[in-house]
Every structure is written in structure tokens, then in C-alpha cells.
Amino acid sequence: MKPRELLLHEIKHRVKNTLGTVQAIAAQTFREGPKTEPRDAFTGRARALAGAHDLLTQQELDHVSMLGHD
């Protein structure tokens, strides 16, 4: 594995761990309230952020389409 690929893999892993932690904190925060809309909105946004990060790390960083494909 090339050094750049190794670094990219490590960054991807750390970001996923961080996003998982943020989502767990949010779940604990929203757990007490009866309303699910804010929790669902936050979860959707966190998943979208994770998806965007996956898109950036799956392709070369110098060329990424905003639509998710070339």
C-alpha cells in the first residue's frame, strides 16, 4: 500500500469513528425528548456527512463530482 493510500485509509477510519461518536452523543441527547423530528433530522445530516466523506475518500481527491459520479 502506498503511503498516500495508507494515510487516506487512516483518515477515513478516524473520521468514521468521530462521526459515530457524534451520532452516539446526539442519540443520548435526544433520547429523553418525545419528539423524533429533530433526532431524525440530525441523524440524516450525520449520515449525509458520512456519505460525502466516503465519496471524497473513494476517489482521487483532485477530482470529485458533486453528483457522486463522473
Can you walk through the features of this model?
With 70 residues, this protein is an all-alpha fold. The chain contains 2 helices and no strands. It has helices at 3-30, 37-58. The radius of gyration is 15 Å and the shape is elongated. It starts with a helix and ends in a 12-residue tail after the last helix.
Task: Identify the overall geometry.
Answer: elongated
Gyration radius over CA:
15 Å
* Order of helical and strand elements: HH
Would you report the number of β strands?
A: 0
* Helical content class: over 70%
Distance between the termini: 25 Å
Structural class: mainly alpha
Helical stretch tally:
2
Unreliable stretches: none
Q: Tell me the β content.
A: under 5%
Which sheet architecture does the biggest sheet show?
none
- Mean pLDDT, rounded to whole units? 79
Can you give keywords for this protein?
70 residues; mainly alpha; 2 helices
What is this structure, in a nutshell?
With 70 residues, the chain is mainly α. It is 71% helix and 0% strand. It contains two helices and no strands.
